[in-house]
Specification:
Layout lengths: L3 H6 L2 H12 L11 H15 L7 H13 L4 H18 L4 H15 L4 H13 L3 H14 L5 H12 L3 H14 L3 H13 L3 H15 L3 H17 L3 H14 L4 H13 L3 H14 L3 H13 L3 H20 L5 H10 L4 H14 L3 H13 L3 H10 L8 H13 L3 H14 L8 H8 L1
Helix pairs in contact: 2-12, 3-5, 3-7, 4-5, 5-6, 5-7, 6-7, 7-8, 7-9, 8-9, 9-10, 10-11, 11-12, 12-13, 13-14, 13-15, 14-15, 15-16, 16-17, 17-18, 19-20, 19-21, 20-21, 21-22, 21-23, 22-23, 23-24, 24-25
Length: 439
């Protein structure tokens, strides 16, 4: 890809990263001198970074009261819209999302040129997996917020999911050149991870950790992302160090609890992994947390409890869909894992890929086809899912499974071996399958 080498090898991005590390906020865009605008920008920045929510219920209630007093104040309505998104991130309560949309649309009715409200709708579209809509809002915000880095986060994130990687990496480069801070570094890290440079991704996240400057929510977020990368490289102890540091920085942080479950499973400590997964799923019942909890219950041969957890995933999906979140891709992968109505799952995966024509959209179709026994059809999609050089052991496993069920046993073994070399415990459910096949 034309821009991949720029993202991976440095150039202007490497200079920007280095300068950001050395001089901190010197290159950061200035905050507004108006306190209300500054408060809006601060909430927008937190929402677009991806860090933990950190907005107490009392703060949301205070904003709601201010809006009742001043119902046409576009700045207050925009702040409230972002605050709802942060509460969603902290609680997984999808009912905050329609409330965010209502507040942001009211802000635009009060002031059609309120740029942060446009940006907020772009952020909301990303949460709901409406990536074409997110791109439209991001481009509109780019015009309204000349010189700001924030629209490029929305633009780049949307382009990634739409499979437009050259353009996405270009947006991230623009973002880091305008403001080399945590949000930009995290996206550079993801670009490097997608293109197979996990070591470079770790370097970018280490710079992100520097810019977090000890703030609990941003620091915990970056530490968990570092743990994921280290675990993906099979460096379990480094992953554990980052994970448990995140829990010290932000006690009870659900994302760190979930990562602790993965770390302990990689250590072979399945009892501790199960306890951490239970805590994570109880704190924020996301599909990922509940699914891992169920897998660990199965591993402990507590199958009735595992089935109850999996029933919860269906409820979670329905609640998300009722509040406007598209879950086709995640549902297709999950349903394929358990061979739930394979023919319908293939249709679901194809629909997901139409909305998200990314490498993970390709993987969803490949996995659904392979698990439904349509292995020759699966292989081209499994190959496309690896077109960026992404070093993801689950993608490797899915490719191996497709090869094996198509009768290519040697290729199956090779891909399974590569998955296990990256991370011997890449999946509670599937790593044992890969090991058994190699034996």
């Amino acid at each position: 890809m034309r821009r991949r080498t720029t993202v991976l090898l440095g150039g202007a991005v490497a200079v920007a990263l280095a300068l950001g590390s050395l001089v901190g906020g010197v290159f950061a865009q200035p905050s507004s001198s108006d306190p209300a605008t500054a408060a809006t920008e601060a909430l927008a920045g937190r929402a677009l970074t991806g860090a933990a929510g950190g907005v107490p219920t009392a703060n949301v209630a205070g904003l709601e009261e201010q809006v009742r007093v001043s119902p046409s104040d576009s700045g207050l309505l925009t702040q409230l819209g972002f605050a709802y998104q942060l509460r969603w991130r902290e609680t997984a309560d999808a009912s905050y999302l329609p409330r965010s949309e209502a507040a942001l649309r009211r802000a635009l009715r009060a002031d059609r040129a309120e740029p942060n409200a446009v940006l907020g709708l772009g952020s909301l579209a990303l949460i709901r997996h409406e990536f074409r809509e997110a791109l439209t809002y991001g481009r509109r915000a780019e015009r309204l917020l000349a010189g700001s880095s924030r629209p490029y986060g929305v633009i780049g994130d949307a382009l990634i999911e739409l499979g437009r990687y050259d353009d996405a990496f270009g947006a991230f480069e623009r973002m880091v050149s305008l403001r080399p801070g945590l949000a930009a570094y995290a996206r550079i890290a993801y670009a490097r991870e997608l293109t197979g440079d996990r070591t470079g991704a770790i370097a970018a996240l280490e710079l992100a950790l520097d810019t977090a400057a000890g703030q609990p929510e941003p620091s915990a977020f970056v530490l968990v992302e570092l743990a994921k990368l280290e675990l993906g490289l099979g460096r379990t102890e480094a992953a554990a160090r980052h994970t448990y540091t995140a829990l010290r920085v932000l006690p009870g942080y659900p994302a760190a609890r979930l990562e602790a479950a993965r770390v302990e499973a990689s250590r072979g400590r399945f009892g501790r992994a199960l306890a951490e997964a239970r805590r994570a799923s109880e704190a924020i019942p996301t599909q990922a947390a509940v699914a891992l909890h169920a897998e660990l219950l199965d591993r402990a041969e507590r199958h009735a409890e595992a089935r109850r957890q999996r029933a919860t995933i269906t409820v979670i999906d329905r609640l998300l869909q009722a509040n406007g979140v598209q879950v086709d891709l995640e549902s297709a992968i999950y349903r394929s894992d358990y061979r739930i109505q394979p023919a319908r799952t293939v249709l679901l995966a194809r629909r997901a890929r139409a909305d998200r024509p990314s490498i993970y959209g390709d993987d969803a179709v490949a996995w659904a086809l392979a698990r439904s026994g349509r292995c020759d059809e699966a292989l081209p999609f499994a190959e496309r899912a690896l077109r960026l050089g992404t070093k993801d052991p689950l993608l490797y496993f899915h490719r191996g499974y497709a090869e094996g069920c198509a009768g290519n046993r040697g290729a199956m073994r090779e891909w399974y071996k590569r998955a296990l070399e990256l991370n011997p415990e890449f999946s509670v459910r599937w790593a044992p399958v890969a090991r058994a096949a190699l034996r």
